[in-house]
Each structure stands twice: as structure tokens, then as C-alpha cells.
Amino acid sequence: SIDISKLRDLSGAVTLDQGYKNTGACKSEITFLDGEEGILHYRGYSIEELAEKAHFLEVCYLLIFGELPNAAQLLEFETHIRRYTLVNEEMKSIIDGFPKTAHPMGVLSALTSALIAFNPSAVNPENPDELYEAVCKLMGKFLVIASWTYRKSQGFPLNYYDNTMGYVENFMQLMFKLPTQPYKANPVIVQALDQLFILHADHEQNCSTSTVRMVGSSHAGLFASISAGVSALWGPLHGGANQAVLEMLEEIYANGGDADKYLDKAKDKNDPFRLMGFGHRVYKNFDPRAKIIKAAADEVLKTLGYDDPILGIAKKLEAAALTDEYFISRKLYPNVDFYSGIIYRALGIPTDMFTVMFAIGRLPGWIAQWKEMRLNKEPIGRPRQIYTGYPLRSFVGMDKR
Ligand code: ACO
């Protein structure tokens, strides 16, 4: 017989904070976020100013290297990224191994991981040259393979990076260029995408970024850590929400546009349905990125002459939620993903690519956070637990079970 009283109760020695709602896991100089006031800064610059005045590659440089680049640094960064946009031909046979129906996020995660096989160095963050090469390599190849996940799902031939175009415009031609035809992206679309990528570029210790830091804390390499971040982003409570929002809006529209019915479902505690694109772990006020995106959605749709009834549904739902006691009392506001899908749709991006778009935008943030974590020499991440299982018991032989 077992004396349970002899088992030590370790629970008093451990702080339990499921979901890390009040636990800081690191110190960081990258992103400042005040959720009560709805404020977001990258390296001290407000998100509003960056979204209005900067380009995505400038913001990538700012996040990863700490300061805005001057013209020469930016040119060199862009040129260096371009140098690495050729993806090993053997990666294509990996892509061919996936069924056409595979979700692009699953393919992106696998391909990012597969890049390690062709770039085996774990990347020493303390060697600035090695780090710079790895950053440019990852930024170049990630964009190309992200577009390939779509080309594959459509059964289209794969496109290659066009050295005459910028980084964001290249994404459009990688996605949509038809064989033998020249491609010129609509500048309105390129500008909107550039802004969306900036808005998604970092968001301090969110789920995918924490995953990147956690995986990296074991000194797994940069590419392996980023691949883990892609998987974490995929979930519908995180980056996957942008796809879920659009599917929800389409469903509401298809069912006659009754926003109130869906609000009631979201409020019903016996119904697992949540209003996708609403609520945020940290923002208890309007998400500043959502404000910018909302204005951009109106502008882009107007400029492209795209009359989308889904935008009408979104506005109706937002207005209803913002005046509903359930949402007011819980401080549930639209988040960045509530409007991003509407713009992606207007730009011709297919729904199951929305989270891939998020990943392209978030890549510099993941890299910056990985670098900071390693340079700060953070210890391996290893949370404790409170054990709630059996005390020690005797093994039961097969004949007695
Ligand atoms: N619809 C209905 N009720 C909600 C929603 C929602 N979208 N979000 C939160 N609530 C309710 C919860 O049921 C809970 O109610 P209760 O106090 O009566 O139990 C209360 O608000 C607090 O919610 P929590 O789940 O404790 O909040 P948490 O911080 O853990 O979750 C999250 C944040 C995951 C973002 C949540 O709001 C959610 O699921 N939203 C929908 C998915 C979404 O849009 N995700 C994208 C987030 S932004 C991003 O990752 C880029």
C-alpha cells in the first residue's frame, strides 16, 4: 500500500498563470504596446506614423537592426535579399509531394522547416555578418515559398522573383503572373499590401512570437524557430482569425445578413461560437491597427471600384457589437484581423492565403525577437506545472486490467 502523505505537494512553489495573462517572459526593446490606451510603437515609432510614411522593408530593417535604415543601407538590404530569392530546385519536389488540397499554412511551415536542410547553419546571432546573411536569406526565400503554396494549390507553374520589382510588388507577380505575359501590379494594391505588412510586422509577445522565442531558447536554429512560429500563427484564435473572419462574414451574408443572430450566438455561453475578429488578449480598447485598416479598407475598395457587400456586413456587425452590453462590459473591440480579410479579398488574395499574408508581415518581428532573445542570452524556456494526476500507484499486470 502507498502512503500518499509522503508525496510532496509542490504546488505552493509554483505560480500558476495559464495563458500567461500576467506573466512577463522577457525584457524587450522592440515593441511597446499599451492595451488600455490602444497604443503601439515599433522601436519608439508610432504605428500610425510608420503605416503612413514608411515602406515595409524599412520597417523590417528597423525591427531587426534597431534603427531606420538610411538610403544606402536600405538599398543594400533590398539588394542582398534579392540575391537570396532563388529557392533550391529540390524544394520543388517537396512541394510536389503535397496534395493540392493542403492548407497553404501547413505547406509554408513544412517548407520553412525544409529550408534548414539546404541551409544547415544554426546561425550565430553574435556574428553580425552571419546574421545579416541569414536574415536576407530567410526574407528572400520565405516570400517566394509563401507564393508557391498558392501556386501549388491552384496547380499553376511556379513563378520566380523578378529583380526589376520591389519586394512587395514581387509578391503580387509571384502569386499572379501568367506564363509568357508581362505583369504589372496595380500601385494601389502594392501600397495597401505594404501597409498591411507593416501593421502585422510585430506585436510583442503574442502566441507565435513567444513560440519563436521558446523554440529558439533551446538554441534551435533561426529557420527552425521561424517554422514553429508559422505553425503557431495558423490557429484561428491567432493569425488564422483573418480567414475565419471572412468565412464568418460570408456565412452571415449567405444567411440573409442577420448580424444580430450571430451576436446572440457569440453571447450564448452554451454555444462555442465566437465573433471572429473581436477581442484581444492585450487590447482592452480599439486595436490601433484595426483603425488604420478600417480606413484603408474603405479607401482601397473605393479606388478599385470594388463594391463588396461583405464590408457592409462587417460594418453592421461592428456597430451592433460596439453598442451591445456583452461586448462593452468585456471590452471586446474589433482586432487587426476584422478588416484585413476584406482588403485581401479586394486585392484578389484567396481566403486560405490570408494567414500566409500575415506570416509574411510578421516574419521581421519573429526574426527581431529571436535575435534579441539570443543576444540577451535568455535561458531555455521551461515552465513548471501543478501536477493534478494520480499519486504513486502500483503497476497492474495485463491479466488484472
Ligand atoms: N466573441 C464572443 N465572446 C468573446 C470573444 C469573442 N470573439 N472574445 C472573448 N469573448 C468573451 C469570452 O467568452 C469571455 O467571456 P466570460 O468572461 O463571460 O467568460 C471574455 O470575453 C474574455 O475572453 P477570454 O477568452 O478570457 O480572452 P482571451 O484574452 O483569453 O482571448 C482572444 C483573446 C483569443 C483573442 C479572444 O478574444 C478570441 O477568441 N477572439 C476571437 C478570435 C480572434 O479574433 N483572434 C485574433 C486575435 S488578434 C491576433 O492574433 C492577430
UniProtKB/TrEMBL annotation:
GO biological process, one term: tricarboxylic acid cycle
CDD domains from the UniProt entry: EcCS_like
SUPFAM superfamilies, A to Z: Citrate synthase (SSF48256)
Presence of the UniProt keyword Glycosyltransferase in the record: no
InterPro entries recorded: Citrate_synth-like_lrg_a-sub, Citrate_synth-like_sm_a-sub, Citrate_synthase, Citrate_synthase_AS, Citrate_synthase_bac-typ, Citrate_synthase_sf, Citrate_synthase_typ-I
Residues annotated as the enzyme's active site: H280, D337
UniProt entry tagged with the keyword Flavoprotein: no
GO MF terms, alphabetically ordered: citrate synthase activity
Metabolic or biological pathway: Carbohydrate metabolism; tricarboxylic acid cycle; isocitrate from oxaloacetate: step 1/2
Swiss-Prot/TrEMBL keywords: Acyltransferase, Transferase, Tricarboxylic acid cycle
Family: Belongs to the citrate synthase family.
Name of this chain's protein: Citrate synthase
Record organism: Flavobacterium franklandianum
Taxonomic placement: Bacteria, Pseudomonadati, Bacteroidota, Flavobacteriia, Flavobacteriales
